[in-house]
Amino acid sequence: MQEFKSGFVSVIGRTNVGKSTLLNNIIKEKVSITANKPQTTRMAIKAIANRENSQIIFIDTPGIHKPKTKLSETMVETAFSSLKDVDVILFLIEATSKDVGKGDKLLLEKIKEAKKKTILIINKIDLVKKESLLELIEKYKDEYDFEAVIPISATDEKYSEVVLDEIEKLLKPGPKYYEDDEYTDQTMRQIAEEIIREKALRLLNEEVPHGLYIEVEKFNLRKNSKKQEIYDIEACIYCIKKSHKGIIIGKEGSMLKRIGSSSRIELEKMLNTKVNLKIWVKVKEDWNENTNILKKFQYK
């Protein structure tokens, strides 16, 4: 009988390289929100892949970028801190890169310091020709001795098993850290906050999204008059400028209604029951510099 293996894997890369998309496909559940905006992931999120002979715990990390606020400093620190405690690193890059850029060179330095087994994942291979992909592989192989190099398209689920097989080869025998039906360490309240933020990210213009902070203030399950279960969820969207508040609410509340409606639909799907969702918008200037709030985003 094959010995059971387990281990922790940090998923790291520059912002918007497809880390969360890859992870959601691997886990086959939505564990990380995705949006076509930089710095979508703000904290280290654990995602658990249960296989016949292994349990792989992934840590999805914020994308590496040049920090401009205490929030973005915390995000970058979180990503780098995750490298210390893992067994394997998945380093994601884009196939469209021509060279090893500054951001990826910095990441490679951190990987070298961590001295962990590392797999290079080259995402978005559908956007490039084979010749340029092979050239890019050689450039990265010159920089570091990777355990494996896997070209993928993160949106295509067929690559998930390939990635899992390569990781499993590198793991040592170990225990099950989580039950078979667990796929993330996030609470339902945290997932609800992230779903609301995702909908806001997707619907709002470029100016607003990164100044948003969502806090679920109420998350209660009750039975209505027909004895049907229903969740009462109340959340507040905090923004850093008064002008942003007006954009989030929209003309006659139209934008807030869209954010609320799309959030409620996804929450009902996730919770498999009716949801009564109420969302408010408040201005909290400089929340992204507030040490107490930023503790929420630190790697634990």
Q: How many H/I helices?
A: 9
SSE-based structural type: alpha/beta
The chain-level mean pLDDT equals 87
Tell me the helix content: 25-40%
Any idea how many domains?
2
Which value, in Å, is the CA radius of gyration? 20 Å
Low-confidence stretches: none
Strand content: 15-25%
How many DSSP-defined strands? 9
CATH architectural type of the largest domain: 3-Layer(aba) Sandwich
Describe the main β-sheet briefly: 6 strands, mixed
Whole-Å distance between the termini?
Answer: 35 Å
Order of helices and strands: EHEEHEHEHEHHEEHHEH
Under CATH, the homologous superfamily of the largest domain reads: P-loop containing nucleotide triphosphate hydrolases
Q: Strand order, biggest sheet?
A: 2-3-1-4-5-6
Short recap of the structure:
With 300 residues, the protein is α/β, with parallel strands linked by helices. The chain has helices spanning 19-27, 70-81, 102-114, 130-143, 160-170, 188-203, 242-249, 254-271, 291-294, and strands spanning 5-13, 45-50, 54-60, 88-94, 117-123, 148-151, 213-223, 229-239, 274-283. α6 (188-203) packs antiparallel against α8.
